[in-house]
User: Fold this.
Amino acid sequence: MFNLVLFGPPGSGKGTQSDKLVEKYKLVHLSTGNLLREEIAHHTPLGMEAKSFMDKGQLVPDEVVIGMVDNYFDKHKGARGFLFDGFPRTVAQARALDNLLDLKMTSISAVVALEVTEEELVKRLLNRGKTSGRSDDTNEEVIRKRYAVYLKETAPVSEHYKKVKKFESVKGEGTVEEIFNAVCKAIDKKLE
Ligand code: AP5
Assistant:
């Protein structure tokens, strides 16, 4: 299996690039943000719990997210690989993911991080907030909170993958196509 983590702060382009990467590398897209928004749209208890954290720009508790990922694996047993988008977001999630993949006799193949400045992220997300309907995109304070949470809780996850030499960074500013080419180059280097 080929398992890729697309890493980066909120608004760095993970979702945009994921759509192109899953097509090129024939992977199953696992976006914990999208799964949580589906739960909210269906008014499930999990969705209602998650919404209270998401609206404030905070992370949803690890055990909720890890359980959801485990269920997703069960539904995609024949996958030739996964693209993880917005997961893992804490060191505890990264360790849990290693354990879940161990059970499937596989592991993370590569982690590619998109680097974008805070000002560009805020600009992109406020702009998306005009049409997305996402409650966490409309308020600049919540967007900056998401970025602060990223720095404190998610950025340290990079060390987990640097230790095993699976981590690569690319510039996440430029055209979508330029960034896609840079991400593919980083992946292909890891695949060699
Ligand atoms: P999640 O849905 O994962 O959102 P996020 O990480 O905040 O990221 P976004 O979807 O906002 O951005 P993105 O990097 O995918 O960029 P995109 O391509 O969309 O998480 C939302 C919330 O759910 C979290 O805050 C948390 O509460 C919870 N959650 C999710 N996963 C969790 C987990 N594992 N653990 C705990 N809690 C979790 O692009 C953004 C915008 O920029 C778009 O408008 C796009 O068109 C534009 N854009 C893209 N590329 C470019 C470019 N090159 N130039 C200009 N604009 C661009």
